[in-house]
Amino acid sequence: MTESPYLPTPQFARWRKAKSSAVTGILVACALAVIAPLFLVIYFLLEKGFSSLDWNFFTQLPKPTGEVGGGMANAIVGSVVLLAMATVFGVPFGIFGGIYLAEYGSDRANNWIRFAADVLNGVPSIVWGMVVYLLLVVPFKGFSAYAGGVALGLMMVPLVMRTTEEVLILVPQSYREAALALGVARWKMIVVIVVRTALKGIATGVIIALARIAGETAPLLFTALGNTFWSHNLKEPISALPLQIFAYGLSPYDDWHRQAWAGALVLMALIIVLNVTVRVLSRDRSKTD
Amino acid sequence: MPAPGSRGPDIAFKWVAMFAAAMIVVLIVMVGWELYYGSRLAIAKFGAGFLWSSEWDPVLERFGALPFIFGTLVSSLIALLIAVPLGVATALFLTELAPLKMRQPIIIAIEMLAAVPSVIFGLWGIFVLIPWLRDSLFVWLKRFLGFLPLFQGPIYGLSMLAAGIIIAIMILPIVTSISREILRSVPNLQREAAYALGATRWEVLKIAVLSYARRGLFGAAVLGLGRALGETMAVTMVIGNRPQISASLFAPGYTLASVVANEFTEATTDLYQSALFEIGLVLFAVAILVNAAAQVMLKSMSGSGPVKVN
Amino acid sequence: MKASPAQARTVEAGLPAEAEEVAFDIKNFSLWYGQRQALQDVTIRIPAKKVTAIIGPSGCGKSTFLRALNRMHELTPGTRLEGSLRHFGEDLYGPGVEAVAIRRRVGMVFQKSNPFPTMSIAENVLVGLRLNGVRDKRVLQSRLEESLHMAALWDEVKDVLNRPGTSLSGGQQQRLCIARSLAVQPETLLMDEPCSALDPLATAKIEELIQTLRERYTVVIVTHNMQQAARCSDRTAFFYLGRLIEFGNTRNIFTSPSNPQTEAYVSGRFG
Predict the structure, then answer these.
(1) Does B302 reside within a domain?
(2) In chain C, which residues have pLDDT < 70?
(3) Which residues of A touch B115 (CB under 8 A)?
(4) Is this structure's pTM higher than 0.80?
């Protein structure tokens, strides 16, 4: 064997190796840097929020400006109400849209609809607030819980639609054929066989969407608006945890800052619970991964 | 064929499903139309000049979007400069280096980071990040890079740079997870080809993985940009909300989304509100274009397997 | 029928005792993927500047064996091995021996052609040299031409060197990958079923090329195609269930195998 004319020198080989090790180190450092904010956020949520959590926080209304004490009871209830309304409004659209994509649509139409859904997902949430303001707040002459629910619901539609489509497609074709062969009408086949088989997956998709919108503030700013008392009428403004955190966080009062942290901790806990539920529900689906 | 008696419900069901799916496309058009409708007063009054006027004076009712466009672009750019290298590096770590047991916990942590609401990042920004930036990082930047106009002027804490950093944290999860999908779609044979030539690990990443995936990674960055442009609450809380164009990153700024969030309910006159609608229209148009571009890029890249977005 | 390593050794001893240079000297080599043993106690001396074919039914460990020869198997997590593997006297797994250095000396061609899609034909050929720090334009140019000549591809691509490597036909791409491996001047070329994705015409070209490669390189080729092994190799090793059953001159293996399992396989009765 003739000696290679360019045979790499040992120094050069060492340099290549060192470069490779350095890059490895940098990649590890980057990964740590990416997850560090999560721990910093959680740490401060616990440190600043936990001590402020007391019975009053969950049961009392906000105190008038400047007064110490009070709680966010109305905001917690308001968030639950708004999420429920968003679900009622957004989920049917999402599920039926997903059914269309999985069961009826032609490839071309589906491509366009999926594309539109993915693009809608990227629309800044504040834009939804403005649009619903024009659609519901101006004509009905006032901010309302309805408007807030619709704004959040609209944000759920593309999310639920895409996840529904994904799980419906996973239902084996043979189930459909078996049902049709029994002389079942197509719509019944879809509802009784396809949707029922995929129900868990659809529910998971809905919870994912809920987790995504539970912390949304921007779409509520000019729809639900927020208030500091119990709402008894869905045609009136309603408070929500994110709105209250925003208002208190920007206020000049220490006691309100304290409560903002407590509210943030409760909101984060709610979102973590939703996410854990998703993990538990989708555990046996993850085999396909 | 279904039984004849069931044709009616069958057709009705199909139409309901079709209507729901069509809603998605209708929604995009409707949002655009509504925003245009809301901004017609401002469009009539200021015309195209709205986009490059830097005046924002609600009292004299003179409105221009330039400071907000500037603030949105600069804060998003800062965010991308931080988030894209970090996100791609983390994705590389996760797909190429990390031991299998380590991958899942990191992926879950990144998903959790994505789940933190904007308003919580804002709160954390005001009370944790901003004081730290003001007292250490900004002081340090000013001392060592103060010869650049970017790092001159008084330090308030609330600033364009703080907004950029917080947006970076918020878009990191999506940039990382899309990059990971892209890197996972690089065929193993490409890596083996490089290894078989005697490439070191870094050389394999460079010649086989990154170059193969570069278009998809660009798509991930564009998608990150789309998210960055529209971030609202956290930005509103840390950017300082001042409609000015300043060379210094320590100076407060304003973005399209944050001016709407901040001033919409205070907009007392029709023209003022209309100007804010036009700001929303600009934001919507840019977001749609950027997101559509990202989707097209990611789809054209994923020949070897679907790249799942969201 | 149970194969034993003792048998394999006997067979090897039966080879012509000419004083030939040995490329790979492998003794008592075993390899595990986690708990599963993929290779058992393989002892074999692969001659230099000859073509050695490795045959055997799917899952017999022939690809694993090949990938151990330039430590490519290390990319699969959880592998463990025992025994001694020497390449021209150098211990492949000795302390301080870098896989990177081994792989430059022991090149590899894969089942499916895998040119780098973002590089031109010329860049694909030269990428290994560039990694090794070669910057001299004259050296690069001459290595480019020489490698493409060696891979019998020069005449077909000399006018389109700047086109992407992936613009070539399947057979051309595989020859481009061979040129890419040859450019770093390895001593040995490992080929893992290089023709399994190619049509007969392209296969014939690669086989022809393998004949010329033996003048300068040691070639070890894994193939599931026994005609191919018979046509283009000097020596043939038959693997079965992770063991080396028989190793000898190709003609002997195909005409008068000494092991009944080998005979059953080459006559097409199983596998």
Answers:
(1) no
(2) 1-19, 270-271
(3) 211-212, 215, 271-272, 275
(4) yes
